[in-house]
Amino acid sequence: MRIHKLYIKQFGKLKELELSFTKEIQLIEGENEAGKSTLQRFFLWMFYGAVPIKEFNLNLRELAVPQGETYAFGSLEVFFDSSQLIIERRSGLNRRDDFLRIYEKNSKEQRYYQEPLGKSIFGLTVHEFIKTLFMGSETTSAFNDKNDGLFMKLSNLLDSGEEEVSYKKAAEDIDRQIKVLKNGKNAGSIPQLQGEIRSLFAELEASKRMFLEKEKIQNELEVLDTELISLKRQQDLLSELQTKARLFHKKSDILKLKGALDELNELIAEKEKNWISLSEVDAKMIREKIEQLHLAQEDLLKMNEEHQRTVRDLELYLTYEEDLKLMDEIKAETWMQLIEEEQEEHRLQRELLKNREHQGYDHSFGSRKEEVLLLLKKYERQLKWLKSTQRSGRFPLILMLFIAAAVFSLLRPSGLIFSTHFLLVPSLIIYAPPVQRKLRSHALTKIRHSENQIDQISLELGLDPGEVLRSKKILLMTEDTEHLRILSQKIEDIQKNREYYYRISGTSTLKALASVMETCRKNIGLHQERQAKETILRERIRPQQDKITLLERDLIYHLSPLGYDPDKASLDDFWEGYELNKVRRSLLEEKENQLHLSIKGLIGEEPLERVLEELSAFEELSLQEDISEELLSEKNQHLSLQLEKMTTAKTELSEKYERLQFRDPYYLEDYLNTKHIEEQSLHRRLSVLLKTKELLMNAEDLLKKQYVQILGDEVSRRFEQITGMKRTVFVEDLNSMSFQEGIHRKDDKKLSSGALSQLYLSLRLTMINRIFSENSVPILMDEVFNSFDDLRMENALKLLITEFSSYQIFIFTSHKRERVFLENSAEILVLPKKDNM
Questions:
Q1: What distance in Å separates the CA atoms of residue 307 and residue 169, rounded to the nearest whole number?
Q2: Using an 8 Å Cβ cutoff, are 88 and 100 in contact?
Q3: Does residue 33 have a pLDDT over 80?
Q4: In angstroms, how far is the first alpha carbon of the chain from the final one?
Q5: Lowest-confidence range among 253-257, 607-611, 803-807, 828-832?
């Protein structure tokens, strides 16, 4: 930024002051109280407005408004953002009287910058501006604490190369995440998740107890059903016991036979048909192929899940084609055209409003506007004619005609008769009283006729006749509407052109349109990335599926001879059952041979079917003593009582079974495992955050030490250039400084006032060079060299010329010694004396 010119209408003690700046260094001289400090504060006021600055005991509103006046006003002409701008600021006694206006010098087009203006231009708050670019003779500490804005900017520049990115912000963000994980009360925190796990565990324990109880009741019901069927059958078999007496005498043999037959039936049921035994080598080969198939299926499942997530994300973006069309419609050139059209519309609106303010109020005469205007013009001419006939100036006119006739007759005696007939006679006739009365009567008749027409039109339009008579001037003013129509048409054309882009984007302002375009650009980029990802996943899934198909076909080829049917059982279940059956079969074959030998020894050659039929009656009745009629009767009564008790017990158990309601414990276990995994994930995340914070803080400490060393070296170099003495300066946390002279290290307060000012000037110049990286900004120095001797002043000015040539420097002084050194390098301006101001 370059300041070319300033104009002060009135600011403090300065009035009607205009200065131009053509060189990099401006030396502004003036006697004491000539207004140098006021001029320096004028720049501060122009950039930051009439704000109170308590830290530096400055109230710019009180300093700006002159005593006895109600406002302060000034302007700056600057070159900024490749444009020549005019900045105008006005401050009154209250904030509502303030305004800031910025516009281009040539086109007068207004520019908009957010207040405070200095923050928008330099990126500094008013406090940071005073601590860097705004220098006085007093020593101002650059930083108050480690949270100072300048401290953060300088630290961040070293850490990341960006002023607004810092380790501190990253550490604060990590602290917030750790706090949420350790102490958060919402979902996603470790305490909340642990409470949910405890609740789920208690519910699981209760569900397990109720599940076992329900299973026990169900088993008891099944037992009761079996016993009831058995008791009913026993009642039916009591009548057949007489025919079974022969078998009863062989009770012990029958019981042994029953046990042997039961074991044999169990063995027979467990046998399987079509059994084929595999060798150990073949079984191992099949197990390895099944394991390969499982690994391939898991990989395919992961690929499918990722592919489905990507496809769902693509399907959720429903407006892709519309967004792509919008981006194609609105190119960079179109966007710049829309901005230019909006600015042109603002200018046309202002011009249209200005013209309408001067256009006046227009009565609504509708289609009779021209008729009314002609009638009013005619009425005005009639009034003027009537007025002319009533004038009392006829005698001077007749006298002038007589004089003219006399002169004509003297010049030409023969023309006396001509002048009498053609000059005097007509005038005497016209101005004769009878003729005058007739003319006035005729004029009044026409006037009354015009007034009647005006009354008639007023009645038809519903207006007051007096208002119609007064509207001639307004109607004449409204005739010139062509310019207004052209302006309105231009505005309408601009709005129609922009309305198309608003309509296709669903917005109503350029700001909203810019936001929509940015969102579309991001969404299109993300969509294209997902499309590429989806294509890659789809191409990876196909060979994986082919691999699984080949493995399944190979396994089916090896397992089909064993009786495997893919439609009836899964591969894992079939193979697990095959290996279990292989073990079980070897055991059953051995038992089967033993039982066959035992059965032959018990029943001999008797048919097995008949022995089983006879034994079933004794088994169900559980008879172990001699059979008699009394015994059978008692047995029947006993069976009836048992049936009644069992029926009652079954009803009670069924009611109890229905009352047990709970969630499936297997579901709860799976859900609890999921929560445990989530808790472990949160703990891992917490440990990662803690370790990250530790590493981050260590890195920050290391970089700060390096940065303080770098900053101290630069301050030491500039301090040595100014003073001519070699001292090592230490900048401790950018809050205080010390220096080493010889082998002794001393606090900066041990320096003299002049050396201390030179030290802080070195610090400020280092800060400016660090923050702005030689970008053009103004440096305002008011009596900075008061405590400098001539040599150190020259050294400081040399430093400014050699290292800060890209900056615009304003030096305010009441001495002449700066002029001697800067005679050929600076533009020298002299403020007028106080008496002349």
A1: 37
A2: yes
A3: yes
A4: 30
A5: 253-257
Interatomic CA distance for residues 359 and 366, integer angstroms: 18
Nearest Cα neighbor of 777 from 799, 801, 802, 810 is: 810
- Rounded to an integer, what distance in angstroms lies between the CA atom of residue 78 and that of residue 73? 17
Which residues are 830's β-sheet partners? 29
Handedness of CA 112, 114, 116, 120 (dihedral sign): negative
394-451 confidence digits (pLDDT tens): 556 566 766 776 776 677 666 555 555 555 555 555 556 777 778 788 878 888 888 8
Residue 517 has a CB neighbour count (10 Å cut-off) of 18
3-class DSSP assignment, residue 115: coil
> HSE of 442 in the Cβ direction (CA atoms, 13 Å)?
8
Contact partners, residue 564, CB within 8 Å, separation at least 6: 556, 571, 574
List Cβ neighbours of 278 (8 Å cut-off, separation of 6 or more): 286, 562
> Which 3-state string (H, E, C) describes 23-75?
CCEEEEECCCCCCHHHHHHHHHHHHHCCCEEHHHCEEHHHHHCCCCCCEEEEE
* Cβ–Cβ < 8 Å for 555, 571: yes
Interior/surface letters 337-364, b for 16+ CB within 10 angstroms, e for the rest = ebeebeeebeebeeebeeeeeeeeeebe
Mean pLDDT of 74-87: 92
DSSP annotation of 832 reads: P
**Which residue is associated with the tokens 């501190």?**
168
Beta bridge partners of 134: 780
CA distances to 343, 724, 754 from 139, in Å: 47, 21, 10
Question: Degrees (nearest 5) of the Cα angle 35, 39, 45?
Answer: 135
DSSP for 440-495 reads HHHHHHHHHHHHHHHHHHHHHHT--HHHHHTTHHHHHHHH--HHHHHHHHHHHHHH
pLDDT tens-digit series, residues 453-480: 878 877 877 777 777 776 655 555 455 5
Main-chain dihedrals φ then ψ at residue 420, nearest 5 degrees: -65, -45
The answer to whether residue 38 scores a pLDDT higher than 80 is yes
In order of 639, 655, 717, the CA distances from 651 in angstroms are: 19, 6, 102
- How many C-beta atoms lie closer than 10 Å to residue 309's C-beta? 14
**Are 7 and 21 within 8 A, CB to CB?**
no
Q: How far is residue 377 from each of residues 108, 297, 382, 464, 598, measured CA to CA in Å? A: 42, 100, 9, 18, 146
Minimal CA–CA distance to 29: which of 810, 778, 761? Answer: 810
Of 683 and 12, more confident: 12
Least confident of 131-140, 313-322, 602-611: 602-611
**CB neighbour burial string for 707-729, b if at least 16 within 10 angstroms, e if fewer:** bbeebbebbbebbbbbbeeebeb
Backbone angles phi, psi at 643, to 5 degrees: -60, -40
Residue 341: enclosing H or E segment and its boundaries? helix 332-359
Q: Which residue has the tokens 């009565």?
A: 363
Beta partners for residue 741, in sequence order: 744
Q: Which of 60-69, 98-107, 338-347 has the lowest mean pLDDT?
A: 338-347
Determine the Cα–Cα distance for residues 32 and 379; give it in Å rounded to an integer: 74
